[in-house]
Amino acid sequence: MVEPPALAPADRVTRFDAPAKRALEAAQQALVDCRLTADNPGEWFDFEYFDLCEFGPQKVPSFRAAVNALDQLVREDPQLDQGSRATLTRALRDFASWLELSVRAAQTRGTLALYQDVARTWNDYQPKDKVELDPPHIVHQYTVQFPERFVDYVIGKAGYRSHLAFGLPLPWRRGVHGPRLP
What we know:
Elements (H helix, E strand, L loop, with lengths): L8 H22 L3 E5 L10 E5 L5 H18 L6 H23 L5 H15 L10 H10 L15 H5 L17
Antiparallel strand pairs: 1-2
Helix pairs in contact: 1-2, 1-3, 2-3, 3-4
């Protein structure tokens, strides 16, 4: 049996990039079903917002299929599972597992913070093809739909609108009840 010629390193990376980008886009598509919602107001009516995702019936399976295709490629060519590619594959795989678990448990709080981790990993891997760390519709909901001061994330402080003005992501707080925005 004749072995197929080995791929050059550049061809190998190119072969990895397309399925990795498809998996990332499928993750972003799943987040379209997320929104911000508020707990009961706390002391001095300080509202805490958190993410709530109502995933459509095909969003999570589509993302899992894209991640499985990437996993299959890595199994066929183990040299792809190195360095930043391995980190990205692991981040996408973990995020797919999180989405599946959150759907089963009906507890989706924390999804947007975990997506930020995936987006950061992608941006480290592909600095020339960066993606936003927060879905645009979440930033829009925060800045446009909740513009009043009394529903800001932190009452009496500078707020995170100036944070966003500097191009920084929303600073999700991670806690025992899942990540929340402070």
